Amino acid sequence: MGDHSFPKTSRLLRPADYSGVFDDVQIRVPHRHFLILASPNSLGRPRLGLIFSKRNLKHAVQRNRVKRVVRETFRHRTDLGSLDIVVLGRQNLATQNNQALHQALDAIWRKLAGKYRASETGNGPSG
Asked: Molecular function terms in GO for this entry (predicted)?
């Protein structure tokens, strides 16, 4: 059985960590229910930050469920490189069941990994 933890080394912890991504967005992956912003880091591993507002997910139960699914799908990805990643929730996210969230996030992580590889090799735009 694999490691199912989400250690502090895999998280964006401080406001400065989030600001670093927002100030230097190099990769954007838009989706109907999510917006992924990412910028390279020098740590050799990806880090994840989550932003889900009460405006889009009214109840704490909904926010916690979506965050849990995002973290779970993130942990299973090994191809995200050295990126600081911020996941923002969009409207109508609460209407999605866990299976739909998993499918959407798997597609988003694949797209992000592809854009990261393209930016590393210098092939094509990353935004």
From this structure: ribonuclease P activity
Q: What Cα–Cα distance (Å) separates residue 83 from each residue in 31, 98, 109?
A: 19, 25, 12
Mean pLDDT, residues 60-72: 93
- Measuring CA to CA, which residue among 82, 77, 90 is closest to residue 29? 90
* CA 2 centroid distance within chain: 20
pLDDT of residue 6: 74
Token pair of 82 as six digits: 């050295």
For residues 80 and 109, the answer to whether their CB atoms sit within 8 Å is: yes
d(CA 124, CA 115): 9
Residue 34: what pLDDT? 94
- What is this structure's pTM? 0.87
Domain ranges for the chain, please list them. 17-121
Written as six digits, the tokens of 110 are: 């694949």
CATH architecture for segment(s) 17-121: 2-Layer Sandwich (3.30)
With contact defined as beta carbons under 8 Å apart, do 26 and 127 qualify? yes
To the nearest whole number, what is the mean pLDDT of the chain?
88
The average pLDDT across 4-30 equals 88
